[in-house]
Amino acid sequence: MSQPQGALQAAAKAPPPAAQKDSSMERQKQMIAGHFRALSLAKETGQRVAYTFVPGNLTELMHAFDVLPVYPEINALQSAMRQLSAGYIREAERLGHNEDVCTYVKCDIGMLTKGNVGPTGEALPPPNLLLLSYTGCFTFMKWFELLKHEYGCEVAMLHVPYVAEGQPTADARRYIVDQLKAEVIPKLEKVTGKKYDEGRLRALLARSRQAEDDLVWVLDSAKARPSPIDAYFGAVYYVGPIFSAFRGTQDAVAYYRELRAEVEDRVLKGLGPVTPDGTLTREKYRLVVEGPPNWTHFRDFWRIFHDEGAVIVASTYAKVGGLYDQGFRHGQADDPLESLADYCLGCYTNLSLPSRVGLLEKYVREFQADGFVFNSIKSCNSFSAGQLVMLRQLEQRTGLPGAFIESDLVDPRYYGHANIKNRIESYLQMIEQRR
Amino acid sequence: MASAPTATELLERCERLFADTALDAVRAWKAAHPGRLAIGHLPVYAPRELIHAAGALPVALQGGGDQVDIVKGDACFQSYICHLPRSTVELGLTGDLDVLDGFVFPSTCDVIRNLSGIWKLLFPQKYARFLDLPQAFDASTGGRFYRHDLEELGRELHGLGGLPPDDGRLRASIALYDDNRRAIEKLYALRRETPWLCSSDEAFLLVKAGGVLDVQEHTALLRAFIDAAGSRPRKREDRIRLLLIGAFCEQPPLGVLRTLEKSGAYVVDDDLNLGARWLEGDVGPSQRPLEALVRAYLEQSTWASTRFEHDEPRGAQLVKRVRRAGADGVVFAAPSFCDPALLDQPPLQKALTEAGVPFFSFKYAENTGQFQGIREQAGTFSDSLKLWGAA
Ligand code: SF4
Ligand code: SF4
Q1: What is the predicted ipTM?
Q2: How many other CB atoms sit within 10 Å of the CB of residue A31?
C-alpha cells in the first residue's frame, strides 16, 4: 500500500529549489541514509533484520529488540519512483505472476529476483524474521507466503481483526495481545537471543507519542487558509518517519519538532504549501483525497493539482500507518502491548466502509473542503472495493460532487496522465461554476 | 409406495434450485416455518451449524452466476474487481435477497470484507455481520477469539428472532452437518472412483443445492443420488483425470465445467463449493459443542488459499491431493482479479512442476459466456497427455 519513506528518498535526490529546502527534509534524508547504512552493514554487525508491513507495524517492539525493519512496500514504491517498477513487474509476470494481482507484490518479487538492490545501490540483507502484521489487507498474507518460500526464515504472524462495527472490541484487542505474547515476542526473542524488556518498550512508546503530537499539529495546520501544507502529496513526506523505521526514536522526535516549527513559521507568514515547483501562492481549491497516490508519475500527478491552485487539505492515505489525528497515541494505554494492539486495529484500511465514509465526511467539513477526489488503485482491493459506493454516500452527505479517477501505485501501464488531467481539470471547473 | 427418484429427476431439482436466484425455495421454507429466520452467508466458510441451531436456515450466497443481468451492480464496482460482489449487490438491490433476515460475511478476502461495509451502507436496516475467522490456529489465541465471536454471533441471531444459544440444539445441528459432510464426501468418492457416473457439473449442482435446502433434506437428496447413480446407463470413456483448483469462491458457470468434460477430461476432484467441504471429517459429538466447532475449525480446516499457510506448504498439499485423486493433471481455474487464488498459482505450479504433474490454467468470471478458448486449451492438454503422457 504505502509508503512515504521512499517518496522522501526520491525527493531527497531531486529536492525542491534550494530556497525551499527545509532543514527537516535534510534531517529526514540523513535518517534514511543512516538506516540503509545500518542495513547494509547488518551482516557485519550481526544486527537482525525483519521484513514487515507499514499498516499495523510493530516498530517500537522491533527497536526494543534492536531489530532493523525493512518494508517491502517501501521498496516497491521506491522502485516506482526510480522508474524500475515496470521492469520488476514484467519480471514477476514472466515468472508466472498474474497480470490481475497487486502490483506491489509483483514489484517486490521482481526486485528480489534481480538481486534485491535497495536505493543505496547495495543489496538489502535477507530477513531473519518475516513479521507479518496482517492489518487492513488480505494480500499482505499472500505476499509473505511468497517471501516465506523464498527465504525459508522464521515467520511471525499477527492477525489483526477487522474493525467492522465502528469500534474495536475488547476481544479483538485481547486476541492481538495474546498473539504478541504467544507468537511475536517469542519469535523476536528467538531470532535476536534477547529477552523482551517492557521498560524499554515503554520508553520507545513515550517517544512515539511526542512525535505523534507534533505530526498531528502539522496535519491539523491544513485547517488554516491558506493551508501551509499539502496533506496528501506533501504529507507522504511528513508521515515517512512515523510510518516506518523511526517511530520511537529520538531522531523522529527531533524531526517532528523541527517540521512543526517550520510549518508554524509558514502559518505565521501566510504561506501556502511547498510543491516541487516552489511555494503555491494562490490557494484556489481545497480538496480531500481518498486512496493512495500513483508513484510512477508522482510529480506529474501532483502537478495536475498544484498547477490549478488545488491543495489537498486532508487525505486518508496519510492515515494508513495510523489514525493519530483521531486521537490515538502510542503509549496511551497503560499496558504497552495493549497500546500496540490499539494501534494495529486503528489503521485506516482496517476500518469498515461506513467508518471510512464518516471520516471523509468529517474531513470535508472540518477542513472546509470544496470537494473530494477518489484515486482508485487497480492493485488494491483493500482500498478500492466499495469506493464507488463510498463516493455516492459522501456526495449525499456533504451535498458536494466528488471526482473519481483510476490509476495504479507502481504499474505505469495503468497511469493515464492525459485522462486524469482532463478529469481533474473538469472537476475543478465544475467546483468553480458552482461557487 | 412412491418409487425412488431417478438420478435425472434429482438433478433436475438441483438445476431448478440453481436457477432460483430469487430464492423462491427459501421463501417457501419460510412460509412452511413461520417465525424462523433465513440467514445468508458469503463464501467461503461459515459455521452453518450455529445458524441452524438458532432455528434458522443458512443460505449460501455465491453470486448470481450467469443468470443475473448486471445493471446496478456494475455501478458499484470498478472493472478490476471480481464479479461476485457486483452480482450479489445486484440481487440485493433488485430485492431478490429481501427474504433473508441477515447476512454473514466471512473474512475471505478484502472484497468480501468490504462488501460487508457496502451492505451496511446500502441496506442499513439489514443485519450484516462480518465474521473474522482467525488466521492464528492456536487454541489459546485464535481459538479463544473465535469462540467469543461465535458466542456473540449466537446471541445476535437470538436478538434477531432466532432461538437462544443452546448446547443441546447445537449438538444436534453438528450431528446433522456431520452427516451431510459424510454424504458429500461419498459423492466425491463416487466421482474419484467412477467419474463417468457423475460429471463435475452434476456434482457441483448436487452440492450447491445444499446452499438453500434444509440440511437433512439435502443429505437425503445426496444419498438418493448416490444410490441411483449406479443404474445410470453410462460407460467409462477414455479420458484424462483432472483436479480443478482455484474456484473456491466465485463459481464458474456450468458451461466451463461441461466444456472441460467434453474436451476429454473427467474432473475427479475440485474445490468448488468449498465451504460445504471446509471441515475435513466429523466435528463429532461433544459435551461442549461450541468448543468442538472451534476446534474443528482450527484443526480440520481444509487447505485453502484464504487461510494462512502456517505449516506444510500448500504446494506439497496439492501434490498429495493430486495423488489421492489419482489425477493425471491439474487445471487452475481462477476468477479474474481474485488475489487469493491467483497469488497462489506460482508456488503451486512450481510444486507441480517439481513433482512432474502437468497443469494448465485459465481465468473466468461467473458470467463468462465464451468457452472456445477453454475448450481448445483443455482439448490440447488432454490429447497430449493421452498421446505422450505429458502435456
Ligand atoms: S492490496 Fe493494497 S494494501 Fe494490500 S499490498 Fe497491495 S497495494 Fe498494499
Ligand atoms: S472471487 Fe476471489 S477476490 Fe472475489 S470475492 Fe471471492 S475470494 Fe475475493
Answers
A1: 0.96
A2: 22
